[in-house]
Q: What sequence folds into this?
């Protein structure tokens, strides 16, 4: 029985019900089990099941008044008032002083509208038990609703004398004084309550209401702000205070802006004209803020309709509120069409831990060329989040379409310290003081579009970018995150048992570390939500382990928890992935979108990404590499460089043996080994693929370079064993690979790996660097058995192109009728600056030309 109710108290409903049913089955006379199990069913609104349990219990406990009271209460919830009244009167006949039975009878009389009878019942109940607060509350409510404030005041003062430190009674009595227009008495009472406990926001809210009623607006605002300081989630008070202080956002009149806007002829490469791109953040003294976006966009073509037709607004259901201020389309003829298709979608459907991750979606109506869309929305904080009173923001002033006006406005209380910096450009704010606030405005006009280039860096690294933060240094950031995240790494018995299971048979500490990493990477399902969407605070390690899924910070938390169980030092590492651009080192704040784990093992620091389920221990995905990251060591910040792979770390090597026939057909075998990126990619694509899919993929790959190729057979290594090398072995044939002209045969020597086109360097010059994701190497060793009696007519020259950014070689050797070709291509640098582009362009074009050279043999 005690095990059952303990489970119920912990929210483990299924386990609790199971134990209590065991009690009932084995000891049917144990009436308390019926009471607790029935009340649990009542609490879950399973009223019929509750009624059945209570009635069953009465067979064994006819004098058990609590059962009668609960049964009558359940009847009342079902609306079966006569049954409820009969049951409760039967209880009171058996036990005429049972408080709960009188309380339920009072509820029944209230439901019938018999308020005088209810008053009599509640008064009698309070004579029996003066501490029965619910009866006191209901009686006072009846007096309130009937306007009998004197009786309500009298009974509240009497109770307050018995409970002089009960703040709720002070608030109730103050409310009654306000209803009776006894404002001075209410103020004195609330000031006394504030001396007892200054941490009740209702005290300050009531005082604010009173002073506002007495025409003391400024004093009222001071008290209301104190209320919000304690309880920033009071959204209605926040809205009202913003209204009084004229902080509400007023949408700009766009009628002048949309006249004589540019056209497709003015910007032939654009999909739209962004007429206005505005963001305004208002930060309040309590640390919460509101962020309003206002966008006006002229659609130019089909790409514009596809790009801007749907507006996605991610937000947290528990921590934020989205208000749509405007959403409309202005057609070319001036007709306005309001957007009505606005709905909420879950960003993590089916994942209990992330049920608050939502997005509001606006489908813009009546889109056509030269239509103008306008939308504006505000995201309000419902309360202070994990950042507390800190905030930060990032704003980009340029995009892939031209912008006429780009503006960011920040409104903060006087005295708040902020730190801001512009990257990739210079722009000083206009600063204005208004009342108790300071307003900063950054604005740019007539900003040209970014013409996209292949492999260009992330937008944040090339456009004017504003970073704002209230963190003064990285120590403050690290200390803050450590304080909220480290407690979540505490393990429970289930985690400890799993660690023992995983490491029991492992001989070395490295083997144990691998086992834990592979478990978290592969057995804990990854839910891909960014920090801003799923919140900044990780879930408890025990929750992540129990539910077997988590986002990046949850996986890092579980890794840290498990590693600490075997004595391996483990740390959070916060990463701004390369997709997002470089970390602004001069603007300390939470500008990260990913979290991984680092461990110290045998004197070496290993970075481990728990979301990279197909990545070997000791490697991290390319999105993490080459970044400056924040490692948090017991609250201390260490800015670390996550190393970028060497070219040989990501290598694909083919050993191919080919027999060439006189008719130009070939038969061959290939043995291919994979390392690093190639290893990870192959596992991710093929580990769950059917045999048919793998065969189709291999044949497609073959035929892309060897026309008419047929896959004869293949073998693969165990793709699920992350410690084993990945390899594939296959045999193939192809007719017509070599060109036969009279007594000569010519063929391309590199059969599987060639640069077929120089399209990637087609532009004469570049404005932005080439930004490759990772260095890599492809190595092909092809051994040809030439037809008997053949001789070499033309053999291309050996070539070696050795550059700081890349390497290429093609070498030939002949031994009898055995021709060996070795081709190596290597990307060494992930960033190639525009000044080096001409040399790189020439390098690629030389390779394309060399890969086209043919070997010619004759008879």
A:
């Amino acid at each position: 029985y005690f095990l059952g109710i303990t489970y119920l108290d912990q929210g483990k409903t299924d386990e609790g019900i199971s134990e209590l049913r065991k009690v009932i089955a084995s000891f049917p006379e144990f009436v308390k089990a019926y009471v607790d199990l029935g009340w649990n069913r009542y609490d879950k609104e399973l009223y019929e099941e509750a009624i059945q349990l209570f009635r069953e219990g009465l067979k064994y406990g006819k004098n058990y008044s609590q059962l009668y009271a609960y049964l009558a209460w359940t009847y009342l919830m079902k609306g079966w008032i006569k049954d409820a009244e009969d049951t409760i009167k039967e209880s009171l006949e058996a036990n005429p002083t049972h408080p709960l039975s009188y309380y339920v009878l009072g509820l029944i009389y209230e439901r019938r509208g018999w308020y005088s009878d209810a008053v009599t019942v509640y008064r009698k109940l309070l004579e029996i038990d003066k501490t029965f607060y619910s009866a006191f509350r209901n009686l006072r409510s009846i007096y309130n609703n009937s306007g009998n404030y004197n009786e309500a005041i009298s009974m509240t003062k009497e109770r307050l004398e018995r409970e002089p430190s009960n703040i709720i009674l002070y608030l109730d009595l103050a409310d009654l004084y306000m209803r009776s227009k006894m404002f001075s008495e209410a103020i004195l009472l609330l000031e006394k309550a504030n001396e007892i406990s200054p941490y009740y926001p209702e005290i300050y809210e009531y005082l604010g209401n009173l002073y506002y009623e007495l025409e003391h607006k400024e004093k009222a605002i001071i008290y209301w702000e104190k209320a919000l300081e304690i309880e920033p989630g009071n959204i209605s008070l926040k809205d009202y205070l913003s209204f009084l202080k004229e902080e509400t956002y007023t949408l700009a009149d766009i009628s002048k802006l949309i006249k004589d806007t540019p056209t497709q002829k003015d910007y032939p490469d654009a999909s739209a004209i962004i007429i206005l791109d505005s963001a305004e953040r208002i930060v309040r003294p309590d640390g919460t803020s509101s962020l309003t976006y206002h966008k006006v966009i002229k659609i130019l073509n089909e790409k514009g309709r596809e790009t801007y037709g749907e507006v996605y607004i991610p937000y947290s259901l528990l921590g934020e509120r989205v208000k749509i201020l405007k959403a409309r389309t202005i057609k070319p003829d001036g007709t306005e069409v309001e957007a009505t298709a606005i709905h909420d979608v879950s960003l993590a459907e089916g994942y209990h831990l992330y049920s608050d991750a939502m997005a509001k979606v606006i489908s813009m109506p009546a889109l056509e060329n030269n239509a103008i869309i306008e939308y504006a929305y505000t995201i309000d904080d419902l309360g202070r989040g994990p950042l507390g009173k800190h905030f930060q923001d990032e704003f980009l002033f340029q995009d892939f379409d031209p912008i006429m006006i780009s503006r960011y406005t920040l409104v903060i209380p006087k005295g708040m310290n902020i730190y801001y910096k512009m990257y990739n450009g210079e722009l000083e704010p206009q600063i204005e003081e208004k009342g108790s606030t300071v307003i900063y405005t950054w604005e740019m006009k007539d900003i040209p579009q970014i013409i996209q280039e292949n492999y260009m860096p992330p937008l944040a690294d090339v456009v004017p970018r504003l970073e704002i933060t209230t963190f003064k240094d990285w120590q403050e950031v690290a200390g803050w995150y450590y304080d909220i995240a480290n407690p979540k790494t505490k393990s429970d018995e289930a985690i400890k048992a799993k660690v023992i299971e995983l490491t029991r048979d492992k001989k070395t500490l490295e083997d144990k570390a691998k086992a834990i990493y592979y478990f978290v990477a592969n057995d804990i399902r990854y839910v891909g939500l960014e920090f801003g969407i799923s919140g900044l605070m990780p879930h408890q390690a025990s929750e992540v382990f129990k539910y077997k899924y988590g986002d990046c910070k949850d996986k890092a938390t579980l890794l840290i928890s498990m590693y600490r169980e075997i004595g391996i030092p483990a740390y959070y590492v916060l990463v701004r992935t390369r997709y997002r651009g470089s970390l602004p080192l001069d603007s300390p704040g939470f500008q990260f979108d990913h979290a991984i784990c680092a461990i110290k093992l045998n004197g070496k620091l290993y970075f481990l990404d728990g979301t990279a389920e197909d990545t070997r221990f000791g490697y991290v995905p390319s999105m993490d590499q080459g970044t400056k990251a924040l490692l948090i060591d017991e609250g201390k910040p260490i800015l670390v460089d996550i190393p970028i792979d060497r070219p040989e770390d990501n290598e694909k090597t083919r050993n191919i043996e080919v027999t060439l026939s006189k008719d130009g057909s070939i038969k061959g075998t290939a043995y291919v080994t994979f390392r690093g990126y190639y290893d990870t990619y192959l596992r991710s694509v093929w580990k769950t693929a059917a045999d048919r899919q793998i065969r189709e993929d291999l044949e497609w790959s073959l035929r892309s370079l060897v026309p008419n190729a047929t896959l004869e057979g293949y073998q693969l290594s165990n793709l699920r064993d992350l410690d084993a090398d990945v390899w594939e072995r296959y045999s193939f044939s192809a007719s017509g690979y070599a060109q036969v002209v009279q007594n000569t045969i010519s063929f391309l020597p590199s059969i599987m790996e060639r640069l077929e086109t120089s399209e990637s360097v087609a532009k004469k010059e570049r404005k932005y660097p080439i930004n490759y994701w990772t260095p890599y190497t492809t190595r092909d060793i092809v051994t040809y058995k030439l037809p008997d009696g053949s001789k070499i007519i033309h053999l291309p020259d050996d070539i070696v192109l050795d550059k700081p950014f890349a390497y290429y070689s093609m070498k030939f050797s002949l031994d009898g009728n055995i021709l060996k070709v070795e081709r190596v291509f290597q990307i060494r640098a992930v960033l190639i600056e525009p000044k080096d582009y001409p040399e790189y362009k020439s390098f690629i074009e030389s390779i394309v030309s060399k890969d086209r050279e043919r070997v010619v043999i004759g008879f």
